[in-house]
């Protein structure tokens, strides 16, 4: 069992490697380029704001949705059991979110030191931790892990719906959620809930967000248990 899970985790890690190299190359080069531009216009009144974490949030939204068609078919094709696929994907998504959260905050720490060394007053990084909690490195990692893991799991569920039930099933589920969201906006429920969350938010909120994502992932077993190689239509 664990030997097969290790094999699946190795495949998932190697499969995402090239995509990560491209993503981080673009992110780092863009950051360096923006710092250079800021240094060249150092005495201007233009302020540049950059966020490494938000770029990863978007990456995890896309990755979570695409993970199903990238990981599941190959896992089934090589004969992995549904239980092992279920466990390995869950372990991989959490480990991936945690590792990227650590990496992105190491990168931000390094770039921040470069900015301080160059004395660039017109360039700054933004992070949810600065707006919501005490801005410490650990809090940033907790926040990024919780957000990225939650986003990956949520979009993974949508990916499963589209994979198993096709465009009709996935589109119908998406439509229902959009409708509920619009109703929530109209009645003020969404706005009031968001205000309450921001007022009471602390590091435990993001730990709880990770826990909620795990609970959501447990329910994906309903789809995984009888998942086939071919899409159902």
Automatic annotation (TrEMBL):
Keywords for this protein: Membrane, Transmembrane, Transmembrane helix
Membrane-traversing stretches: 21-41, 47-65, 85-111, 137-158, 165-185, 205-224
Descriptive protein name: Uncharacterized protein
UniProt lineage: Bacteria, Bacillati, Bacillota, Bacilli, Bacillales
